[in-house]
Amino acid sequence: MSLKKSWLESANAPGCEFPLNNLPYGVFDAGAGARMGVAIGDCVLDVAAVDHGLDAALFADPSWNAVMAAGPEVWAALRARLMELLGNDAHRDAVSEHLVALSGVALKMPFAVSEYTDFYASRHHATNVGTIFRGAENALPPNWLSIPIGYNGRASSVVVSGSDVRRPWGQLKGPQDDAPRFAPCARFDLELELGAIVGTGSEGMVSVADADAMIFGYVLLNDWSARDIQAWEYQPLGPFQAKATATTISPWIVTAAALAPFRVDTPARERDLLPYLREPGPMLYDISLSVGLAPEGADEQIISRTNYSEMYYSAAQQLCHHTTSGCPMRTGDLLGSGTISGADQGARGSLLEMSWGGKEPITVSGTQRSFLEDGDTLTLYGAAEGDGYRIGFGACTGTVLPATPQPEWTKQESTT
Protein backbone atom coordinates (compact mmCIF):
# COMPACT_ATOMS: atom_id res chain seq x y z
CA MET A 1 0.00 0.00 0.00
CA SER A 2 1.29 3.49 -0.84
CA LEU A 3 0.82 6.85 0.80
CA LYS A 4 -2.76 8.16 0.91
CA LYS A 5 -2.68 11.89 0.22
CA SER A 6 -4.29 14.44 2.53
CA TRP A 7 -5.10 18.07 1.78
CA LEU A 8 -3.11 18.82 4.96
CA GLU A 9 0.38 19.01 3.45
CA SER A 10 2.22 18.14 6.66
CA ALA A 11 0.58 14.70 6.56
CA ASN A 12 2.26 13.98 3.20
CA ALA A 13 5.78 14.98 4.26
CA PRO A 14 8.52 12.33 4.15
CA GLY A 15 8.97 10.69 7.54
CA CYS A 16 5.67 11.98 8.93
CA GLU A 17 4.45 9.60 11.65
CA PHE A 18 0.80 10.50 11.17
CA PRO A 19 -0.17 10.35 7.49
CA LEU A 20 -3.70 9.67 6.29
CA ASN A 21 -2.87 5.95 6.34
CA ASN A 22 -2.47 6.08 10.13
CA LEU A 23 -5.09 8.27 11.88
CA PRO A 24 -4.28 7.20 15.46
CA TYR A 25 -6.66 8.08 18.28
CA GLY A 26 -5.84 10.05 21.40
CA VAL A 27 -7.08 12.58 23.92
CA PHE A 28 -5.73 16.13 23.92
CA ASP A 29 -6.14 19.37 25.84
CA ALA A 30 -5.55 22.64 24.01
CA GLY A 31 -6.42 24.69 27.08
CA ALA A 32 -10.19 24.28 27.13
CA GLY A 33 -10.42 20.77 28.56
CA ALA A 34 -9.79 17.26 27.30
CA ARG A 35 -11.16 16.28 23.88
CA MET A 36 -11.01 13.16 21.70
CA GLY A 37 -8.64 13.64 18.78
CA VAL A 38 -7.03 12.00 15.80
CA ALA A 39 -3.44 12.82 14.82
CA ILE A 40 -2.89 13.95 11.24
CA GLY A 41 0.41 15.44 10.10
CA ASP A 42 1.54 18.04 12.62
CA CYS A 43 -2.01 18.57 13.91
CA VAL A 44 -4.73 16.93 15.93
CA LEU A 45 -8.35 16.94 14.77
CA ASP A 46 -11.13 17.50 17.31
CA VAL A 47 -13.21 14.49 16.29
CA ALA A 48 -16.36 15.42 18.20
CA ALA A 49 -16.50 18.81 16.46
CA VAL A 50 -16.67 17.51 12.88
CA ASP A 51 -19.43 15.76 10.95
CA HIS A 52 -18.32 12.23 11.79
CA GLY A 53 -21.69 10.67 10.95
CA LEU A 54 -21.94 8.68 14.20
CA ASP A 55 -23.89 8.96 17.45
CA ALA A 56 -22.60 12.05 19.30
CA ALA A 57 -22.83 10.13 22.58
CA LEU A 58 -19.77 8.11 21.51
CA PHE A 59 -17.71 11.29 21.82
CA ALA A 60 -19.30 12.80 24.93
CA ASP A 61 -16.49 11.80 27.29
CA PRO A 62 -12.76 12.36 26.61
CA SER A 63 -11.95 8.66 26.28
CA TRP A 64 -12.09 6.17 23.40
CA ASN A 65 -13.81 3.45 25.46
CA ALA A 66 -17.31 4.16 24.14
CA VAL A 67 -16.14 3.97 20.53
CA MET A 68 -14.23 0.77 21.28
CA ALA A 69 -17.29 -0.83 22.88
CA ALA A 70 -19.41 0.05 19.82
CA GLY A 71 -17.63 -2.65 17.80
CA PRO A 72 -15.85 -3.21 14.49
CA GLU A 73 -18.60 -1.81 12.25
CA VAL A 74 -18.43 1.54 14.03
CA TRP A 75 -14.61 1.43 13.98
CA ALA A 76 -14.63 0.91 10.21
CA ALA A 77 -17.25 3.60 9.62
CA LEU A 78 -15.36 6.18 11.67
CA ARG A 79 -12.06 5.44 9.96
CA ALA A 80 -13.65 5.67 6.51
CA ARG A 81 -15.34 8.98 7.39
CA LEU A 82 -12.13 10.49 8.76
CA MET A 83 -10.26 9.45 5.62
CA GLU A 84 -12.93 11.20 3.57
CA LEU A 85 -12.87 14.37 5.69
CA LEU A 86 -9.08 14.62 5.72
CA GLY A 87 -8.42 13.27 2.24
CA ASN A 88 -11.02 15.04 0.09
CA ASP A 89 -10.25 18.70 -0.54
CA ALA A 90 -13.98 19.46 -0.60
CA HIS A 91 -13.98 19.21 3.21
CA ARG A 92 -10.95 21.43 3.78
CA ASP A 93 -12.80 24.57 4.88
CA ALA A 94 -15.23 22.78 7.19
CA VAL A 95 -12.54 20.67 8.86
CA SER A 96 -9.60 23.09 9.04
CA GLU A 97 -11.12 25.14 11.85
CA HIS A 98 -11.12 22.04 14.08
CA LEU A 99 -7.42 21.30 13.65
CA VAL A 100 -5.00 22.22 16.44
CA ALA A 101 -1.20 22.17 16.24
CA LEU A 102 0.23 19.16 18.08
CA SER A 103 2.95 21.41 19.46
CA GLY A 104 0.35 23.35 21.44
CA VAL A 105 -1.56 20.53 23.16
CA ALA A 106 -1.12 18.33 26.20
CA LEU A 107 -1.73 14.65 25.53
CA LYS A 108 -3.75 12.64 28.06
CA MET A 109 -4.58 8.97 28.66
CA PRO A 110 -6.37 7.90 25.46
CA PHE A 111 -8.61 5.35 27.18
CA ALA A 112 -9.61 4.11 30.62
CA VAL A 113 -7.71 0.91 31.42
CA SER A 114 -10.10 -1.73 32.74
CA GLU A 115 -7.59 -4.48 33.56
CA TYR A 116 -3.91 -4.96 32.77
CA THR A 117 -2.19 -8.26 31.96
CA ASP A 118 1.47 -8.54 31.04
CA PHE A 119 3.00 -11.47 29.17
CA TYR A 120 6.44 -13.04 28.76
CA ALA A 121 6.29 -13.93 25.09
CA SER A 122 9.58 -13.11 23.36
CA ARG A 123 11.75 -16.19 23.06
CA HIS A 124 15.00 -14.22 22.93
CA HIS A 125 14.06 -12.28 26.06
CA ALA A 126 12.92 -15.38 27.95
CA THR A 127 16.08 -17.24 26.93
CA ASN A 128 18.35 -14.36 27.95
CA VAL A 129 16.69 -13.86 31.33
CA GLY A 130 16.54 -17.58 32.02
CA THR A 131 20.21 -17.97 31.14
CA ILE A 132 21.19 -15.11 33.46
CA PHE A 133 19.36 -16.62 36.42
CA ARG A 134 19.30 -20.38 35.78
CA GLY A 135 21.93 -21.14 33.17
CA ALA A 136 21.54 -21.93 29.48
CA GLU A 137 20.44 -25.53 30.07
CA ASN A 138 17.42 -24.39 32.10
CA ALA A 139 16.73 -21.06 30.41
CA LEU A 140 13.15 -21.66 29.24
CA PRO A 141 10.55 -22.93 31.74
CA PRO A 142 9.12 -26.33 30.68
CA ASN A 143 5.77 -24.79 29.69
CA TRP A 144 7.11 -21.82 27.73
CA LEU A 145 6.92 -23.33 24.23
CA SER A 146 3.32 -24.44 24.82
CA ILE A 147 1.57 -21.60 26.59
CA PRO A 148 1.60 -17.76 26.70
CA ILE A 149 2.87 -17.01 30.23
CA GLY A 150 1.52 -13.89 31.91
CA TYR A 151 0.58 -12.20 35.17
CA ASN A 152 -2.15 -9.78 36.18
CA GLY A 153 -0.79 -6.28 36.80
CA ARG A 154 -2.22 -3.05 38.17
CA ALA A 155 -4.45 -1.06 35.84
CA SER A 156 -4.22 1.84 38.31
CA SER A 157 -0.48 2.18 37.66
CA VAL A 158 -0.76 2.69 33.87
CA VAL A 159 0.24 6.27 32.94
CA VAL A 160 0.55 8.20 29.72
CA SER A 161 3.82 9.20 28.07
CA GLY A 162 5.45 12.20 29.72
CA SER A 163 4.56 11.14 33.25
CA ASP A 164 7.49 10.97 35.66
CA VAL A 165 8.16 7.64 37.35
CA ARG A 166 9.41 7.57 40.92
CA ARG A 167 11.93 4.95 42.01
CA PRO A 168 10.09 2.48 44.22
CA TRP A 169 10.80 1.28 47.73
CA GLY A 170 10.56 -2.42 48.46
CA GLN A 171 11.75 -5.43 50.35
CA LEU A 172 15.17 -6.55 49.10
CA LYS A 173 17.43 -9.49 49.90
CA GLY A 174 20.64 -10.12 48.06
CA PRO A 175 22.19 -13.59 47.80
CA GLN A 176 24.74 -12.71 50.51
CA ASP A 177 22.26 -11.06 52.88
CA ASP A 178 21.19 -12.88 56.04
CA ALA A 179 17.80 -11.14 56.11
CA PRO A 180 15.71 -8.85 53.91
CA ARG A 181 15.75 -5.08 54.27
CA PHE A 182 13.44 -2.24 53.20
CA ALA A 183 15.21 0.08 50.75
CA PRO A 184 14.84 1.91 47.44
CA CYS A 185 15.16 -0.27 44.35
CA ALA A 186 18.76 -0.31 43.14
CA ARG A 187 18.14 -2.31 39.93
CA PHE A 188 15.36 -0.32 38.25
CA ASP A 189 14.77 -1.31 34.65
CA LEU A 190 12.72 -0.72 31.51
CA GLU A 191 10.91 -3.25 29.34
CA LEU A 192 10.25 -2.47 25.69
CA GLU A 193 6.78 -3.79 24.85
CA LEU A 194 3.74 -3.30 22.66
CA GLY A 195 0.34 -3.08 24.33
CA ALA A 196 -2.82 -4.47 22.70
CA ILE A 197 -6.12 -2.82 23.65
CA VAL A 198 -9.30 -4.90 23.81
CA GLY A 199 -12.12 -3.12 22.03
CA THR A 200 -15.10 -5.43 22.44
CA GLY A 201 -15.46 -7.60 25.51
CA SER A 202 -16.21 -11.30 25.74
CA GLU A 203 -17.97 -13.91 27.85
CA GLY A 204 -16.48 -17.38 27.73
CA MET A 205 -13.80 -18.71 25.39
CA VAL A 206 -12.93 -17.05 22.09
CA SER A 207 -10.82 -18.35 19.21
CA VAL A 208 -7.58 -16.76 18.03
CA ALA A 209 -9.44 -15.34 15.02
CA ASP A 210 -12.19 -13.87 17.19
CA ALA A 211 -9.60 -12.50 19.62
CA ASP A 212 -7.81 -10.79 16.75
CA ALA A 213 -11.09 -9.12 15.73
CA MET A 214 -11.61 -7.89 19.31
CA ILE A 215 -8.36 -5.89 19.36
CA PHE A 216 -9.00 -2.20 18.68
CA GLY A 217 -5.40 -1.06 18.46
CA TYR A 218 -1.92 -0.91 19.90
CA VAL A 219 0.32 1.38 21.96
CA LEU A 220 3.99 1.36 22.88
CA LEU A 221 4.40 0.17 26.46
CA ASN A 222 7.22 0.44 29.00
CA ASP A 223 6.76 -2.03 31.86
CA TRP A 224 9.04 -0.41 34.46
CA SER A 225 10.53 -3.23 36.57
CA ALA A 226 12.29 -3.34 39.95
CA ARG A 227 14.61 -6.28 39.37
CA ASP A 228 15.95 -6.58 42.93
CA ILE A 229 12.45 -6.45 44.44
CA GLN A 230 11.37 -9.03 41.87
CA ALA A 231 14.25 -11.39 42.63
CA TRP A 232 13.19 -11.69 46.28
CA GLU A 233 9.42 -11.78 45.86
CA TYR A 234 8.75 -13.75 42.69
CA GLN A 235 8.79 -17.31 44.08
CA PRO A 236 6.35 -19.00 44.02
CA LEU A 237 3.70 -16.73 42.47
CA GLY A 238 5.69 -14.43 40.19
CA PRO A 239 5.96 -10.61 39.93
CA PHE A 240 4.00 -8.44 42.36
CA GLN A 241 5.35 -5.14 43.70
CA ALA A 242 8.28 -5.27 41.28
CA LYS A 243 5.88 -4.45 38.47
CA ALA A 244 3.40 -2.19 40.28
CA THR A 245 5.30 1.12 40.19
CA ALA A 246 4.20 2.26 36.74
CA THR A 247 3.51 1.15 33.20
CA THR A 248 3.90 3.91 30.63
CA ILE A 249 2.01 3.87 27.33
CA SER A 250 2.29 6.07 24.26
CA PRO A 251 -0.51 8.63 23.87
CA TRP A 252 -1.82 7.47 20.47
CA ILE A 253 -3.77 4.28 19.81
CA VAL A 254 -2.64 2.98 16.43
CA THR A 255 -5.58 0.97 15.15
CA ALA A 256 -5.39 -2.61 14.01
CA ALA A 257 -6.81 -1.38 10.68
CA ALA A 258 -3.85 0.96 10.14
CA LEU A 259 -1.41 -1.87 10.88
CA ALA A 260 -3.16 -4.47 8.68
CA PRO A 261 -0.76 -4.07 5.70
CA PHE A 262 2.16 -4.98 7.96
CA ARG A 263 1.01 -8.40 9.17
CA VAL A 264 3.66 -11.13 9.35
CA ASP A 265 3.72 -14.73 10.55
CA THR A 266 4.81 -15.88 13.97
CA PRO A 267 8.03 -17.95 13.92
CA ALA A 268 8.28 -21.64 13.16
CA ARG A 269 7.43 -23.83 16.17
CA GLU A 270 9.73 -26.54 17.44
CA ARG A 271 6.83 -27.83 19.53
CA ASP A 272 3.30 -27.93 18.11
CA LEU A 273 0.81 -25.70 19.83
CA LEU A 274 -2.49 -27.13 21.01
CA PRO A 275 -5.20 -26.58 18.36
CA TYR A 276 -6.91 -23.70 20.18
CA LEU A 277 -3.72 -21.58 19.97
CA ARG A 278 -2.94 -22.11 16.29
CA GLU A 279 -3.20 -19.00 14.13
CA PRO A 280 -5.46 -18.87 11.05
CA GLY A 281 -3.06 -16.45 9.38
CA PRO A 282 -0.34 -13.84 10.06
CA MET A 283 -0.88 -12.42 13.55
CA LEU A 284 2.24 -10.34 14.22
CA TYR A 285 3.25 -7.00 12.67
CA ASP A 286 6.45 -5.68 11.14
CA ILE A 287 6.97 -2.75 13.53
CA SER A 288 10.48 -1.36 14.04
CA LEU A 289 11.14 -0.48 17.70
CA SER A 290 13.92 1.33 19.52
CA VAL A 291 14.85 2.56 23.00
CA GLY A 292 16.47 5.90 23.73
CA LEU A 293 18.15 6.71 27.05
CA ALA A 294 19.17 10.24 28.06
CA PRO A 295 21.08 10.59 31.33
CA GLU A 296 20.21 13.81 33.18
CA GLY A 297 21.80 16.72 31.35
CA ALA A 298 23.08 14.57 28.48
CA ASP A 299 21.98 13.78 24.96
CA GLU A 300 19.82 10.78 24.20
CA GLN A 301 21.46 7.64 22.86
CA ILE A 302 19.63 4.77 21.17
CA ILE A 303 20.54 1.67 23.18
CA SER A 304 18.38 -0.95 21.44
CA ARG A 305 16.72 -1.62 18.09
CA THR A 306 14.38 -4.54 17.52
CA ASN A 307 11.07 -5.47 15.88
CA TYR A 308 7.68 -6.67 17.09
CA SER A 309 7.92 -9.53 14.59
CA GLU A 310 10.40 -11.16 17.00
CA MET A 311 7.54 -12.25 19.28
CA TYR A 312 6.78 -15.94 19.73
CA TYR A 313 3.11 -15.41 20.66
CA SER A 314 0.87 -12.75 19.12
CA ALA A 315 -1.56 -10.54 21.01
CA ALA A 316 -4.44 -12.54 19.53
CA GLN A 317 -3.00 -15.77 20.91
CA GLN A 318 -2.49 -14.15 24.29
CA LEU A 319 -6.05 -12.85 24.34
CA CYS A 320 -7.46 -16.21 23.23
CA HIS A 321 -5.56 -18.01 26.00
CA HIS A 322 -6.71 -15.41 28.53
CA THR A 323 -10.33 -16.43 27.91
CA THR A 324 -9.89 -20.21 28.23
CA SER A 325 -10.82 -20.23 31.92
CA GLY A 326 -14.02 -18.38 31.10
CA CYS A 327 -12.42 -15.12 32.25
CA PRO A 328 -14.52 -12.24 30.85
CA MET A 329 -12.59 -9.64 28.88
CA ARG A 330 -13.69 -6.03 28.99
CA THR A 331 -13.49 -2.98 26.77
CA GLY A 332 -10.29 -1.20 27.72
CA ASP A 333 -8.36 -4.27 28.87
CA LEU A 334 -4.66 -3.81 28.16
CA LEU A 335 -2.38 -6.73 27.25
CA GLY A 336 1.38 -6.14 27.40
CA SER A 337 3.31 -8.22 24.89
CA GLY A 338 6.21 -8.88 27.21
CA THR A 339 9.70 -7.56 26.57
CA ILE A 340 10.55 -7.60 22.86
CA SER A 341 14.13 -8.70 22.25
CA GLY A 342 15.92 -9.77 19.11
CA ALA A 343 18.74 -12.25 18.67
CA ASP A 344 21.59 -9.71 18.64
CA GLN A 345 23.08 -7.89 21.62
CA GLY A 346 21.91 -4.55 20.23
CA ALA A 347 18.31 -5.79 20.01
CA ARG A 348 17.68 -6.54 23.69
CA GLY A 349 14.62 -4.88 25.20
CA SER A 350 15.73 -4.46 28.82
CA LEU A 351 18.82 -3.31 30.68
CA LEU A 352 18.79 -6.61 32.55
CA GLU A 353 19.69 -8.25 29.24
CA MET A 354 21.84 -5.43 27.84
CA SER A 355 24.09 -5.45 30.93
CA TRP A 356 23.74 -9.23 31.41
CA GLY A 357 22.42 -8.93 34.93
CA GLY A 358 24.70 -5.99 35.75
CA LYS A 359 27.92 -7.85 34.94
CA GLU A 360 28.54 -6.05 31.64
CA PRO A 361 27.55 -2.36 31.97
CA ILE A 362 26.84 -0.42 28.81
CA THR A 363 28.11 3.08 28.05
CA VAL A 364 25.45 5.74 27.47
CA SER A 365 26.49 9.29 26.59
CA GLY A 366 29.80 8.78 28.38
CA THR A 367 28.30 7.22 31.53
CA GLN A 368 28.04 3.60 32.65
CA ARG A 369 24.67 1.93 33.05
CA SER A 370 23.75 -1.48 34.39
CA PHE A 371 20.32 -0.27 35.50
CA LEU A 372 18.51 3.06 35.52
CA GLU A 373 19.79 6.04 37.53
CA ASP A 374 17.74 8.93 38.92
CA GLY A 375 17.27 11.57 36.24
CA ASP A 376 17.43 9.10 33.35
CA THR A 377 14.81 9.68 30.66
CA LEU A 378 13.65 6.62 28.71
CA THR A 379 11.87 6.94 25.38
CA LEU A 380 10.42 4.13 23.31
CA TYR A 381 9.89 4.64 19.57
CA GLY A 382 7.97 2.54 17.07
CA ALA A 383 6.87 2.70 13.45
CA ALA A 384 5.80 0.44 10.59
CA GLU A 385 7.38 1.44 7.29
CA GLY A 386 5.18 1.35 4.17
CA ASP A 387 5.71 2.34 0.54
CA GLY A 388 6.60 6.00 0.99
CA TYR A 389 4.91 6.41 4.36
CA ARG A 390 5.21 5.32 7.98
CA ILE A 391 2.73 4.41 10.69
CA GLY A 392 4.13 5.96 13.87
CA PHE A 393 3.09 5.63 17.51
CA GLY A 394 4.54 8.84 18.90
CA ALA A 395 7.07 8.76 21.71
CA CYS A 396 6.58 6.81 24.94
CA THR A 397 8.63 8.72 27.51
CA GLY A 398 9.23 8.72 31.24
CA THR A 399 11.87 10.19 33.57
CA VAL A 400 13.06 8.43 36.72
CA LEU A 401 12.68 10.50 39.89
CA PRO A 402 14.46 9.70 43.17
CA ALA A 403 12.67 7.55 45.74
CA THR A 404 10.57 9.43 48.26
CA PRO A 405 12.07 10.06 51.72
CA GLN A 406 11.73 6.98 53.89
CA PRO A 407 8.70 7.09 56.23
CA GLU A 408 9.65 6.79 59.89
CA TRP A 409 7.37 3.82 60.42
CA THR A 410 9.33 1.76 57.89
CA LYS A 411 12.71 2.20 59.56
CA GLN A 412 14.53 -0.64 61.28
CA GLU A 413 13.96 -0.76 64.99
CA SER A 414 17.06 -0.40 67.12
CA THR A 415 18.27 -3.59 68.80
CA THR A 416 20.33 -1.78 71.43
TrEMBL record:
InterPro entries xrefs: Fumarylacetoacetase, Fumarylacetoacetase-like_C, Fumarylacetoacetase_C_sf, Fumarylacetoacetase_N, Fumarylacetoacetase_N_sf
Cofactor(s) needed by this chain: Ca(2+); Mg(2+)
GO biological process, one term: L-phenylalanine catabolic process
SUPFAM superfamilies: FAH, Fumarylacetoacetate hydrolase, FAH, N-terminal domain
Pfam family of the protein (one): FAA_hydrolase_N
Protein keywords: Calcium, Hydrolase, Magnesium, Metal-binding, Phenylalanine catabolism, Tyrosine catabolism
Listed pathway(s): Amino-acid degradation; L-phenylalanine degradation; acetoacetate and fumarate from L-phenylalanine: step 6/6
Protein name per its UniProtKB record: fumarylacetoacetase
